[in-house]
Specification:
A hairpin with a 2-residue loop joins strand 1 and strand 2. By secondary structure, the protein is mostly helical. The longest helix is centred in the middle third of the chain and has 23 residues. It has a single domain, classed as Four Helix Bundle (Hemerythrin (Met), subunit A).
Length: 191
C-alpha cells in the first residue's frame, strides 16, 4: 500500500499538471462545480492545501482565522500553486500520521486529514482539467483513495449539498467515471 505522503504528493501533482495550463482569460471558465468559476475553484483548492499545512504545523482554526479566505490565486496562478503545494506536501511528509489535529468537527489524525485533502485534490484536479479542456485522466490509486475516503459519507453529504446527485452510468463505466459519478460529476460535462 502506498503511503499517504506519496499519495498526497501525487494528488498535488495532478493539480499542478492542470494548473500549468491555466491562462489568465480562463479564470472565469465554468467548472463542474456549478457554484464556482475556475478562479473560485482554484481558490478552494489552494485554500485546502494551505489549511492542511498550517493545521499540521500546529496552528488552530482560531489562529488561522480568515487568512486563506482571500484571493490565493493572484496573478501568478502556477507559481502560487507551486508554493502552496510544495509547503503542504513537505508538511504532510514531515508530520507523523498519528499526530492529532483538531478540525472543525473535532480531533482527527494527521493521516486521516491528509487522506481527505488528497481525495479532495484528486476530484478537483479533474474539475480543473475539465474546465480547461486538458487531459483529465486520474491516477488509479487516487481514485481508490477518493472512493475509500469519501464513499461512506457521500449519501450524508448529499443531504447538505456537498455532493451532487449521481448521473446515470453505462454498465461498462470505468473506475474513474464511477468515482466521479459518486461525487455527482458526469464525464459528459463540458464547459
Amino acid at each position: 500500500m502506498t503511503s499517504i505522503e506519496h499519495l498526497f504528493a501525487r494528488a498535488a501533482e495532478l493539480v499542478s499538471r492542470s494548473v500549468a495550463n491555466v491562462k489568465e482569460d480562463q479564470l472565469t471558465n465554468a467548472t463542474p462545480c456549478t457554484d464556482w468559476d475556475l478562479r473560485a475553484l482554484l481558490n478552494h483548492v489552494y485554500g485546502e492545501a494551505a489549511w492542511i499545512s498550517a493545521m499540521l504545523k500546529g496552528e488552530t482554526i482560531e489562529q488561522i482565522g480568515d487568512r486563506y479566505s482571500g484571493d490565493l490565486v493572484g496573478q501568478r496562478v502556477e507559481q502560487s500553486w507551486a508554493e502552496i503545494a510544495s509547503d503542504a506536501t513537505a508538511t504532510v511528509k514531515a508530520t507523523p500520521g498519528d499526530a492529532t489535529v483538531v478540525l472543525s468537527r473535532g480531533p482527527s489524525t494527521a493521516e486521516s486529514y491528509a487522506r481527505e485533502v488528497a481525495a479532495d485534490l484528486t476530484v478537483h484536479s479533474w474539475d480543473i482539467a475539465r474546465a480547461l479542456g486538458v487531459d483529465d485522466t486520474l491516477d488509479p490509486e487516487l481514485i481508490a483513495l477518493a472512493n475509500d475516503t469519501f464513499g461512506p459519507m457521500v449519501e450524508e453529504g448529499r443531504k447538505y449539498g456537498i455532493f451532487g446527485p449521481p448521473p446515470e452510468l453505462a454498465p461498462d463505466a470505468d473506475e474513474q467515471t464511477k468515482m466521479l459519478a459518486l461525487f455527482g460529476r458526469s464525464t459528459e460535462w463540458k464547459p
